[in-house]
Amino acid sequence: MNVKLHTPKTLKAGSGIATLKQFLLSLVATTISIVLTFGTAAIIDYNKKEADKREMVMAVLYDFNQTIALLEKADTSLQACSHYQQEIALRPESFDSLRYYFTACATVAQTKFSETTEKIFSSNIETFNTIGNVNFINEVSEFYIQRQVYKEQVVEKLANELKEMPIYSSEKNLFEFDFPDYVLDNKLYLIMMKEIRDKCMKMMDVSEQEMEAFSQQRVTATSDSQGDSLVHTLYDELQAAEAVIDSARKRYQQE
Questions:
Q1: I need a labelling partner for 165 at 20 to 30 A (CA). Which of 39, 76, 154, 173 fits?
Q2: Which residue, 111, 113, 104, is CA-closest to 154?
Q3: Separation between Cα atoms, residue 180 and residue 201, nearest integer Å
Q4: What digits encode the pLDDT tens for the residues 176-235?
C-alpha cells in the first residue's frame, strides 16, 4: 500500500519565509561587518593623516620661531653695536674701553639656521599631499626664500666685512662699518618673517598656547638675559686683565 505524504502548503510557505529571513539577516550582518571594517579603517586612516598634517604644520611653525628668535638676538646685538659706535663717535677716548663689546656682531656673523625642516618640507612630495593647503605651502616657501636672502645679505655680508676689516683694531676700521644700516636690514627681515609666521598660524588655526606646548616638548628654554650678563662679565674681566698687562708693558718699556 503506497502512502503519499503531502506537506501542507502553509508549512511550505512558512519554511520559505524563514529561509528568506535568515538570508536577509545574514546579508545585513555581512554588510554591517564590511561597513564597520572598511569604515573603521577609513576613520583610522583619516585620523592618522590629520595627525601627520598637524605634526608637519607645527614642525614648520616651530622652525619659524627658532629662526625669528635668532633674528631677535641679532637685532639686540646689532643695536648694541650701533649704540657703542655712536658713543665712541661722540667720545673717541672711550674706544679702548668699549671696543671689545663689538664682538657681539661676530656672533651675528656666525648665525646658523637649522635646515632640516626646510629640506623635508621642500624635497618630499608627500609633505604637500599631507598638508593639502596651497596658500600655506606658498607662505612657507616664501619664508624660507627670505631666510636665505637674509643669510646672504646680512650674515654672510657681515662676516666678509669683519674678515676684511677687524673693527676692534682701530677707530678708523670701526667707522667703516655702517651698523645703523645692518640694524635696519635685520629689523625689516624680522618684521617680514613674523608677519608670515603669524599669517600661517592663523591660516592653520594654531594658537599661541598650542605653539608653546609644542615648543616645550622639544627644547628647554635658556635665559638670554643670563647669557648677556655672562658676556658682559667676561668683557669686564678681559678689560681688567688687559689694563694690568698694559701697565706692566709700560713699566718695562721705561726701564
A1: 76
A2: 111
A3: 31
A4: 888 999 999 999 999 999 999 999 999 988 888 888 888 887 765 444 444 555 555 555
C-alpha cell at 230: 655672562
Please, how many CA atoms are within 13 Å of residue 93, restricted to the half-sphere of its CB?
0
Asked if 111 and 155 touch (Cβ cutoff 8 Å), the reply is yes
* Whole-number Å distance between alpha carbons of 70 and 46: 37
Instruction: Determine contact, residues 77/105, Cβ cutoff 8 Å.
Output: yes
Report the SS3 class of residue 6.
coil
Nearest to 203 by CA among 53, 44, 11: 53
Q: How many Å apart are CA 78 and CA 187, to the nearest integer?
A: 10
Phi, psi of 29 (to 5 degrees): -60, -40
